[in-house]
Specification:
This protein is mainly alpha-helical. The chain has one domain. The chain is globular, with a radius of gyration of 17 Å. The relative contact order is 0.12. The mean pLDDT is 89.
Length: 225
């Protein structure tokens, strides 16, 4: 096996863990929750090996974002208000690192005439989304902040697609959109709008989103060599 292919070993374990988690969402919740904490560490290990180490800034930011993703995964295994809140804080922190990674490249050089209207549009979309889901009470402000971070992640990918035009930015944009869709499904269930197969859809889109964001980060790191 070639050295450059060593990343396939953790990638296979990541794929197997993902499939087991998704199967568990359908027929065995205990299996799903048992496997869940291993998903992001395996993805992080795959990225680390594929990159040949964490020397580059992009890889360090990616690994940190995935670490907070793993923390959020573990916290959301538990029921209750506090695990949910701290889980969302962990994911929010991960999104901040993703924005440092992607936004630091795609926003560079944007004029105020571009980014100010974009931020206003993103904020308006957040408000509409929160109203449609029906978020209220003590969770309103935290959910507004979290949803805005998701919108800015999408904006990072979109800015990269429009301005930099490298294929990696399409991957990053798709990852941001899927992450937002996954979290929207979580919010729907949390605020009384459950639907059949929601847990499966959440994990399918979440795992795919994280894999896409990691792939995009690896491509950007390769371009910076």
């Amino acid at each position: 096996m070639k050295t450059t292919r060593f990343w396939l070993v953790p990638a296979v374990f990541f794929l197997v863990a993902s499939v087991l988690n998704l199967i568990g969402r359908i027929c065995n919740p205990v299996l799903a929750e048992t496997v869940k904490p291993a998903l992001m560490p395996l993805l992080a290990l795959t990225a680390l090996v594929a990159a040949g180490g964490a020397e580059r800034k992009e890889i360090r930011l990616l690994l940190t974002a995935l670490l907070f993703g793993c923390t959020g995964d573990i916290l959301l295994i538990f029921d209750g208000f506090l695990p949910f809140v701290f889980g969302m804080v962990a994911f929010l922190t991960g999104h901040i690192f993703y924005m440092c990674l992607f936004g630091g490249k795609s926003w560079k050089g944007l004029s105020a005439k571009t980014w100010i209207p974009a931020v206003i549009v993103m904020a308006a979309l957040v408000v509409v989304l929160i109203i449609l889901i029906g978020v209220n009470g003590a969770m309103l402000v935290p959910m507004l902040i979290y949803a805005f971070a998701l919108m800015m992640l999408i904006f990072s990918g979109l800015a990269g697609v429009v301005r930099l035009k490298a294929p990696a930015w399409w991957i990053i944009l798709c990852g941001g959109v899927l992450f937002t869709f996954s979290d929207a499904c979580i919010a729907l269930g949390t605020f009384g709008h459950d639907f059949a197969g929601r847990e499966f859809v959440i994990m399918l889109t979440y795992i795919t989103a994280q894999a896409l964001l990691a792939t995009g980060a690896l491509k950007l790191a390769a371009q910076s060599e």
